[in-house]
Write a structure and sequence with these properties.
Elements lengths: L1 H15 L10 H19 L3 H7 E7 L7 E3 L7 E6 H15 L4 E2 L4 E3 L5 H15 L19 H30 L5 H20 L5 H26 L5 H29 L3 H8 L8 H9 L12 H16 L1
Parallel strand pairs: 1-3
Antiparallel strand pairs: 2-3, 4-5
Length: 329
């Protein structure tokens, strides 16, 4: 196994110019991820990479149990800050290992790696992780999931790629807000698609909530921006690969993020007996982000014109597993 980790390190250096290190997630890890996105952000904005890097004055982890991060600016995007959820990043690491542990890997002709984690082990681990995320039981960082040593070599490699691109997508979403804020004319199509594709559904959902007319209007103005940032973020990530398999993994990684967030929301509803988003909107008045299910459905409807045949079966598989886990709790 030690030799395989050395092989994996070399593979990541070759594919990403990225050195795998064993360390807790911190801002430095996230800054490392930005270098894969900045060339494509710079091209979109018609600027130099170093100029955008200079404008990013803060990249900080929020260490409270929140699902979403956000980008902020005080000077009309001349400078900007990104705040990301430490919890969701750690949850991703643990849940990717958990889901991949149930996968058998084939070479196209035969199974080369069998799943070795039982269905009950997966369900029990998922419950521990979700309880710990919300602070209801145990310490989140120490919550026991699936040990890396329990995975096969192929599972470890796929986990590493999914995690890399999921982390890139979270950052890319925030860069999408930068592009919309500082150069909106370059993403008019994405904003139009986001607005047109979801307006009726947004309006119907909002009318079911106990919100003022002004709050509903504010949400209808904000939500298309979030959906457009998802679409722009996915496109920025897809710029990193021009091969079909790589683009499918990127698409699946983005969907896995939303599937993980959706699991946490639905588990919270089961545990507390109240709707997560109704609470966020009606009690907390946090209207910036649309429901995660809406974001997942919107992203899943995206057609990758460079890889039309590469439908994201992996993302659908992850979603089915998540629904299976939640149905048993």
């Amino acid at each position: 196994m030690k030799n395989y980790f050395e092989h994996l390190k070399k593979k990541f250096v070759k594919d990403f110019d990225f050195i795998i290190e064993s360390r807790e997630l911190d801002e430095k890890v996230l800054m490392d991820r930005t270098k894969y996105l900045l060339p494509h952000v710079a091209t979109k904005l018609g600027k130099k990479e170093e100029d955008i890097r200079r404008c990013l004055t803060k990249l900080e982890l929020i260490k409270t149990p929140v699902i979403n991060g956000y980008a902020d600016t005080q000077d009309d995007w001349k400078t900007f800050q990104i705040y990301m959820s430490w919890g969701i990043m750690i949850f991703l690491i643990k849940m990717i290992k958990l889901f991949i542990s149930r996968m058998s890997v084939t070479n196209g002709k035969r199974i080369v790696d069998e799943a070795i984690i039982s269905d009950q082990e997966m369900i029990d681990a998922a419950k521990r992780l979700m309880l710990a995320f919300w602070g209801w039981e145990g310490t989140f960082w120490q919550a026991r999931g699936i040990a890396l040593i329990d995975l096969t070599k192929s599972q470890i490699e796929l986990s590493a790629y999914l995690l890399h691109y999921a982390e890139c997508f979270i950052l890319a979403h925030e860069f999408g807000h930068l592009i919309m804020g500082s150069c909106p004319e370059t993403v008019e199509k994405e904003l139009y698609i986001a607005s047109a594709a979801t307006e009726d559904r947004n309006r119907t959902f909002l009318e079911s909530l106990r919100l003022t007319k002004e709050d509903r209007k504010r949400a209808l103005e904000e939500w298309p921006k979030e959906l457009a940032a998802d679409l722009i973020g996915l496109q920025l990530c897809l710029e990193q690969r021009d091969d079909n398999i790589g683009r499918i993994v990127i698409r699946s990684s983005a969907e896995f993020l939303f599937i993980s967030m959706l699991m946490l929301e639905r588990f919270s509803e089961k545990y507390t007996g109240e709707s997560y988003w109704s609470y966020m909107y009606e009690i907390e008045n946090k209207l910036k982000h649309p429901p995660t299910g809406l974001r997942l459905d919107f992203l899943h409807s995206f057609v990758d014109r460079s890889n039309i045949s590469g439908e994201s079966h992996l993302g659908r598989c992850f979603r089915q597993w998540s629904e299976h886990i939640l149905s048993t709790l």
